[in-house]
């Protein structure tokens, strides 16, 4: 998934929104509230959240400026067909195919200029298959794989130039395996191993030139072991960690002397687990 609000637009499509709107037509919602008020096929309905208009085959929701906000097609009392959500300016925001009250098919979300922003595959109301997000330039931004509403498979994010930015393996909705992030240009930025969504093993961060910068040990999601820090291929510090806490640390000076970590330094080490969250 940085969109309009994927959740909001999908919610509107599910609740309110198969054809291009035509004024006074019963196969779609009229373009404006002024038009629908003159159409005897529609009745004004009120609930706690919104006023909307309902006919035998459509529910229509309008913006305060009178333009169509969402339309939902019905067949035999159930949502059936292509539900749509529009911006206040009249641009299409979301298209959601419905079948028997559930999302079924490819949902599409658009930028204000009409370009495709994201698409997701649904089966019987659940995410199933690929979801994709796009930059406004049309380049692929991310792709996610879903099984029964859970992330499953290698999820990938891309820089706008097409280079791989991040890859995260999922199994049944949880991170499982080695996640990686890359610099533009293709060099590895960081890598971490996950077991059932928890960091486990030695997580590593690399400088832009490809040299190792840090090694941070984790066990069941908590800091555990000796963390090591490097500069120009030389170790410059180490920290003993246990139970998620940085217990003690030492800096190695170029003259061979050492200097202990301060409390503030240790707290920074403890914050390293946030670096490797990978979303």
TrEMBL record:
Domain of life: Bacteria
Database matches in InterPro entries: MORN_2
Record's protein name: Antitoxin component YwqK of the YwqJK toxin-antitoxin module
Secretion signal span: 1-25
Keywords of this entry: Signal
Pfam families: MORN_2
Keyword Signal: yes
Originating organism: Desulfovibrio litoralis DSM 11393
């Amino acid at each position: 998934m940085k969109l309009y609000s994927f959740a909001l637009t999908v919610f509107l499509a599910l609740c309110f929104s198969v054809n291009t709107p035509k004024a006074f037509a019963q196969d779609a919602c009229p373009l404006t509230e002024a038009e629908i008020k003159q159409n005897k096929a529609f009745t004004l309905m009120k609930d706690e959240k919104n006023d909307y208009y309902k006919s035998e085959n459509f529910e229509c929701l309008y913006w305060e400026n009178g333009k169509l906000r969402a339309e939902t097609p019905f067949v035999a009392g159930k949502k059936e067909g292509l539900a749509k959500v529009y911006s206040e300016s009249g641009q299409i925001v979301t298209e959601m195919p419905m079948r028997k009250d559930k999302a079924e098919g490819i949902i599409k979300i658009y930028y204000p200029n009409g370009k495709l922003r994201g698409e997701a595959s649904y089966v019987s109301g659940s995410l199933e298959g690929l979801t994709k997000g796009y930059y406004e330039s049309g380049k692929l931004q991310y792709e996610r794989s879903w099984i029964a509403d859970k992330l499953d498979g290698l999820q990938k994010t891309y820089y706008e130039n097409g280079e791989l930015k991040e890859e995260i393996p999922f199994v049944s909705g949880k991170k499982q395996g080695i996640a990686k992030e890359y610099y533009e240009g293709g060099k590895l930025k960081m890598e971490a191993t996950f077991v059932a969504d928890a960091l486990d093993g030695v997580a590593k961060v690399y400088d832009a030139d490809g040299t190792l910068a840090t090694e941070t040990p984790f066990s069941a999601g908590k800091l555990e072991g000796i963390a090591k820090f490097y500069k120009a291929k030389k170790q410059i510090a180490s920290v003993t960690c246990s139970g998620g806490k940085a217990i003690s640390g030492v800096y190695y000076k170029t003259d061979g002397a050492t200097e202990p970590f301060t409390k503030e330094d240790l707290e920074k080490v403890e914050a390293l687990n946030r670096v490797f969250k990978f979303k």
